[in-house]
């Protein structure tokens, strides 16, 4: 395995700092620096961007992002055991890496970042979906980020890019595809990680659209989609009856058969229904 910088191999770093992955923190470490560099490349040209990284662990992806030319990285790490290893990376790349020890769900990264901003992370499994939903549903659009390059369990990645008619299609697909271009760019087997998880993983790249794909009130669309998929086995006239007393007429006006189920309805049609309910 070729080196991407002058720092030690990750196995050596983990052994030196006694960094056994903790299940309680959703940790699975990627040790192949060639692989972390490959993931970093999926984020595109980073030379004029600040990068937000969540859960860097021993810093494999961090080193990949820096080696690929990221202007500056803000890494938020909850596990204090990882800080010495990350400090060594910061010393090797002077002025380009800031590490904050804390919970990514509670920290405002914008105080430390200068646009343009991209997000790249091997997200901890236990907070990955929640962070993604937050990034996709800010009060204003476009968001603070240009793109997201994120690793998830393969099942979650497939839910993000799913199309109508598939079992994976649901709220996450609507949220992601309404405001972003989403695609799976890399697949990783369990044995790529230490310890190996029970499932495969995948890297998803999302590029923020300048404006949503179809006009709709974000709050109403979110409410419609949540109600529809919370009872996805029911026909929409039943699943959505709590949203309006004349829901069948609203569905028909939006071009949706009241007898359809949520997984059959396109993003465009959901947006049409949200506009109809907003009238």
TrEMBL record:
<feature type="binding site">
    <location>
        <position position="103"/>
    </location>
    <ligand>
        <name>S-adenosyl-L-methionine</name>
    </ligand>
</feature>
<dbReference type="GO" id="GO:0003723">
    <property type="term" value="F:RNA binding"/>
</dbReference>
<dbReference type="InterPro" id="IPR029063">
    <property type="entry name" value="SAM-dependent_MTases_sf"/>
</dbReference>
<feature type="binding site">
    <location>
        <position position="55"/>
    </location>
    <ligand>
        <name>S-adenosyl-L-methionine</name>
    </ligand>
</feature>
<keyword id="KW-0698">rRNA processing</keyword>
<dbReference type="GO" id="GO:0005829">
    <property type="term" value="C:cytosol"/>
</dbReference>
<feature type="binding site">
    <location>
        <position position="28"/>
    </location>
    <ligand>
        <name>S-adenosyl-L-methionine</name>
    </ligand>
</feature>
<dbReference type="InterPro" id="IPR023165">
    <property type="entry name" value="rRNA_Ade_diMease-like_C"/>
</dbReference>
<feature type="domain" description="Ribosomal RNA adenine methylase transferase N-terminal">
    <location>
        <begin position="35"/>
        <end position="210"/>
    </location>
</feature>
<dbReference type="InterPro" id="IPR001737">
    <property type="entry name" value="KsgA/Erm"/>
</dbReference>
<feature type="binding site">
    <location>
        <position position="30"/>
    </location>
    <ligand>
        <name>S-adenosyl-L-methionine</name>
    </ligand>
</feature>
<keyword id="KW-0808">Transferase</keyword>
<keyword id="KW-0694">RNA-binding</keyword>
<feature type="binding site">
    <location>
        <position position="122"/>
    </location>
    <ligand>
        <name>S-adenosyl-L-methionine</name>
    </ligand>
</feature>
<dbReference type="Pfam" id="PF00398">
    <property type="entry name" value="RrnaAD"/>
</dbReference>
<keyword id="KW-0963">Cytoplasm</keyword>
<protein>
    <recommendedName>
        <fullName>Ribosomal RNA small subunit methyltransferase A</fullName>
        <ecNumber>2.1.1.182</ecNumber>
    </recommendedName>
</protein>
<feature type="binding site">
    <location>
        <position position="77"/>
    </location>
    <ligand>
        <name>S-adenosyl-L-methionine</name>
    </ligand>
</feature>
<dbReference type="InterPro" id="IPR020596">
    <property type="entry name" value="rRNA_Ade_Mease_Trfase_CS"/>
</dbReference>
<dbReference type="InterPro" id="IPR011530">
    <property type="entry name" value="rRNA_adenine_dimethylase"/>
</dbReference>
<keyword id="KW-0489">Methyltransferase</keyword>
<keyword id="KW-0949">S-adenosyl-L-methionine</keyword>
<dbReference type="GO" id="GO:0052908">
    <property type="term" value="F:16S rRNA (adenine(1518)-N(6)/adenine(1519)-N(6))-dimethyltransferase activity"/>
</dbReference>
<comment type="function">
    <text>Specifically dimethylates two adjacent adenosines (A1518 and A1519) in the loop of a conserved hairpin near the 3'-end of 16S rRNA in the 30S particle. May play a critical role in biogenesis of 30S subunits.</text>
</comment>
<dbReference type="InterPro" id="IPR020598">
    <property type="entry name" value="rRNA_Ade_methylase_Trfase_N"/>
</dbReference>
<comment type="similarity">
    <text>Belongs to the class I-like SAM-binding methyltransferase superfamily. rRNA adenine N(6)-methyltransferase family. RsmA subfamily.</text>
</comment>
